[in-house]
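Comment thread on ticket #2218

A.B. wrote:
> Attaching the input chain for the structure job we discussed in standup.
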Amino acid sequence: QVQLVESGGGLVQAGGSLRLSCAVRATIFSLTSMGWYRQAPGQQRELVASITTGGSTNYVDSVKGRFTISRDNAENSLYLQMNSLKPEDTAVYYCNAIVPFPRWGQGTQVTVSS
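C.D. wrote:
> Ran it. Output below, let me know if you need it in another format.
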């Protein structure tokens, strides 16, 4: 059974940085394109960054140049380095596959104050 555990969120001032981590308990992790999603209050969940099994990355325009997604297949881990954070980045952040596993983790809250 797939298990996703996100960590690393917190409260940060605008312009600050955070690094999110996701521990993925899934035997197929290394074979799966993964992504970071976020959901702000009253908003739909959106995919903000993705990484293929080969390491190719893609970002939504609003985070390009500020966020970097990476993965460690040996550790079954996914990361999101977030720099130059803005108040509009405030959301709960989740990791999941690009074709999401049915069971989501609890996410990690990121709050950016102005």
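A.B. wrote:
> Thanks. Noting for the ticket: The beta strands are 3-7, 10-13, 18-25, 34-39, 46-51, 57-59, 67-72, 77-82, 91-97, 108-113.
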